[in-house]
Amino acid sequence: MPEAAAEAADIVCDRCKRSVQGDSDGWNVVLDKGYAVGYLCPDCQTAEENAEAEVHEATLDYGAGQVDEDGRVRWPQKGACNSIAVGGHGAMRENKAIHLLVSLEPPVLHVAVGPQSDARLSALFGNETCRKAVHEEMSGKGAEPGTRGLAYLVDSDMDATEVWVVEDQAMAVGGAGAHKLLVIYSPEIDPHLLGTFAPEYADSMREAIHAQR
Nearest to residue 168, comparing CAs of 184, 157, 189? Predict the structure, then answer.
């Protein structure tokens, strides 16, 4: 049972009506469309209900549950990002060709931007909160919208939890006159990291991986 639910008062099994006596291990929360509607003790659960609970325990981050505006409980997948930190990065001070650096350290998605960044890069992100935070950081650094397109480079030497956006000429791809920004990432990119990007960009990244194989 999730810790937040285990701390609730007057938890009683829906079937046998016994209450939690200190230890809530093995108890399950009964959810209906995201709403907690009851509880089941270990003795009253069917094999199917117990198996489902074990799958949820293995895949959901019960320590990061959020209640939405309608009162429904949402638990993110383990390994996913639950918050965002936007700022700078030492690599940008050393290499002015880097416009954007994204890294995932669950539960935090880290995004670094430089003052030379193309302000349109905030549109890369699919999550509205993330997009807004990146846009505000870029605006604060004086980043302005550019006119260059994006190209994708799948690099087996990249970390699976990082995505870099750099000047293409800095990587000797396309030549100095290509006017493209290069998105560099691993062919084994973390799916949670890939999922932070807007669908059109995530699809383009997948296509680049597919073309390499």
Answer: 184
